[in-house]
Amino acid sequence: MNTLSVNGHSIALDKDGYLQHLGDWSEATAEALALQEDLHLSADHWEIITLLREFYAEFQLSPANRPLIKFVAQRLGPEKGNSLHLNLLFKGTPAKLAAKLAGLPKPTNCL
């Protein structure tokens, strides 16, 4: 089993590096996961992570790329809700990486 150390606590990860227990998520956990991905979280990242957590709370699933882009565009406008912006923020895999950083399960239709 993979683990992540955050503030002296060991957090269980699945084989793909996603949290095994959604309740283990915190901002510090997101920062630690981002560090593993060699990513520094900016305000733009946090904006998307927060939206993803809202999406999950409402629909109980992690969105794939197209629904993610549409949701972001509806909430933040087309300048942020487009594939170019999200791909730049999340290294070309916005649905997968953003879900991981948000402490959500891997989107079901992502390889």
Automatic annotation (TrEMBL):
An annotated GO cellular component: cytoplasm
Cellular location(s): Cytoplasm
Gene Ontology BP terms: tRNA wobble position uridine thiolation
UniProt main location, coarse: cytoplasm
Residues annotated as the enzyme's active site: 110 (cysteine persulfide intermediate)
GO MF terms, alphabetically ordered: sulfur carrier activity; transferase activity
Protein EC: 2.8.1.-
Domain of life: Bacteria
The keyword Cytoplasm is annotated on this UniProt entry: yes
Keywords: Cytoplasm, Transferase
PANTHER family: SULFURTRANSFERASE TUSE (PTHR37010:SF1)
Function summary: Part of a sulfur-relay system.
Family to which the UniProt record says this protein belongs: Belongs to the dsrC/tusE family.
UniProt protein name: Sulfurtransferase
Protein species of origin: Pseudomonas knackmussii (strain DSM 6978 / CCUG 54928 / LMG 23759 / B13)
Lineage: Bacteria, Pseudomonadati, Pseudomonadota, Gammaproteobacteria, Pseudomonadales
